[in-house]
Write a structure and sequence with these properties.
The chain has about 375 residues and is of the alpha+beta class. It has helices spanning about 1-10, 25-45, 90, 115-130, 150-165, 175-180, 220-235, 240-250, 285-305, 310-320, 335-340, 355-365, 370-375, and strands spanning about 45-50, 55-60, 65-70, 75, 85, 100-105, 105-110, 110, 140-145, 165-170, 190-195, 200-205, 210-215, 240, 265-270, 275-280, 320-325, 345. It has a 5-stranded mixed beta sheet with strand order 3-2-1-9-10, sandwiched between helices. Helix 9 (about 285-305) crosses helix 11. The chain starts with a helix and ends with a helix.
Length: about 375
């Protein structure tokens, strides 16, 4: 009888942690506290670099590489503001949306034009490449144009804070581009970087201590497209869209009047009759269309050279001017700048990715960089 009673008591007092783990929480927590914190700290320290461009958003994750390259478009309902598509899906809807739907770029000329939509887009992109929660929050380096104001900087910082960032560091695009082309390995030398993006053109002279003098122009690849649209409508009486202008710029676009002539058929709407029409466009017409914007960029380069210390001008004359950004892919731009300015100009390999490569290098020093929001306080 005593043996059966002891066996029954043993069964009644047996641990049932697998069924109700809260009953043994103190013991289990003490046992696994260190390993749990180690796991959380490892997972929670995502270091992310973002090139927040007008035309495209590029995301680099330390340890993974370039994980996202998407157009910065958002399709939404005009009345309810409900987001219908983001990135490539939204871009494909451009010019083909039904009534009541619009496709926008929430970032214009390198700064945030639509705060809430930008936050949604960034949160959407970030969650597609890294895990974000109340515990897991990434540290982010963001590229901004060199001419942004403190108010515009604060808007960028607050958007990323609301999107889930634990720490946000702002880095100017020409400095990131210089890092991306390997300037950080050069000692005691100066260089001029011209970064032509979708909405802005940043011109800067950099040295080993940072940016010496810079200027940000509110023009870029988008302005090239608009100039082509206006020229075709004015000279050829044909109305074309942004996608057609972009195709012309990429396929036959040039800024050098001495370049080999190419042709391309473009379709649009006749401005007089309103009927569909196709015409042949030549590269010389594209050159005349964008000539004004290109000369504005060259005049900006001259202004920066006038403000540059003589010692650095000598370094620039020796090493040349470096072109980065997607807008720099226009044929003949390097040759034209070389002829007019008198300094050898070079187009880097994969110029679209120069800024994000520099951001990736900045992530290596993330622990030593100060949160930009603290600097604005």
């Amino acid at each position: 009888m005593d043996d059966r009673r002891k066996a029954r008591r043993a069964r009644q007092t047996q641990m049932i942690a697998k069924i109700t783990p809260q009953m043994t929480m103190k013991k289990e927590t003490k046992k696994y506290r260190k390993s749990l914190f180690d796991i959380v700290s490892r997972v929670a320290t995502y270091d992310v670099g973002i090139d927040l461009g007008t035309a495209n958003v590029l995301i680099y994750v330390k340890g993974k590489g370039l994980v996202l390259d998407e157009p910065g478009y958002v399709a939404r309902d005009i009345h309810t503001k409900e987001v219908l598509a983001v990135g490539k899906e939204a871009q494909h809807m451009l010019g083909r949306t039904p009534q009541g739907v619009e496709v926008i770029r929430p970032v214009q000329a390198g700064v945030i034009a639509d705060y809430d939509t930008t936050e949604f887009m960034l949160r959407y992109f970030l969650k597609s490449v890294v895990s974000i929660s109340a515990i897991i929050r990434p540290r982010i380096v963001v590229c901004v144009p060199s001419g942004v104001t403190p108010v515009e900087k604060r808007a960028v910082l607050e958007v990323f804070l609301r999107a889930g960032a634990k720490k946000t560091v702002l880095i100017e695009e020409p400095l990131a581009a210089a890092l991306g082309i390997g300037f950080d390995t050069v000692k005691e030398a100066g260089a001029m970087v011209v970064d032509i993006g979708g909405g802005t053109t940043d011109i800067a002279v950099v040295c080993t201590t940072g940016i010496v003098v810079s200027e940000s122009l509110r023009l870029g690849g988008d302005m090239f497209n608009e100039s082509i649209i206006r020229y075709i409508r004015r000279k050829r009486k044909l109305i074309i869209g942004t996608c057609a202008a972009e195709a012309l710029k990429i396929s036959i676009g040039t800024v050098d009047r001495h370049a080999k002539s190419n042709e391309m058929i473009v379709r649009g709407r006749d401005s007089a009759s309103g009927l569909p029409k196709a015409i042949m466009v030549t590269s010389s017409e594209i050159q005349r269309a964008v000539e004004g914007q290109v000369m504005t960029i060259i005049e900006g380069i001259k202004r920066i050279l006038e403000k540059t210390p003589p010692e650095l001008v000598a370094d620039i004359a020796d090493h040349g001017i470096v072109l980065t950004g997607g807008g720099a892919l226009m044929d003949g731009l390097d040759r034209l700048i070389t002829r007019i300015v008198g300094i050898a100009t070079y187009l880097m390999d994969s110029p679209r990715y120069a800024v994000i490569k520099g951001t990736a290098k900045a992530l290596e020093e993330m622990s030593d960089l100060r949160d930009s929001l603290d600097e604005l306080q």
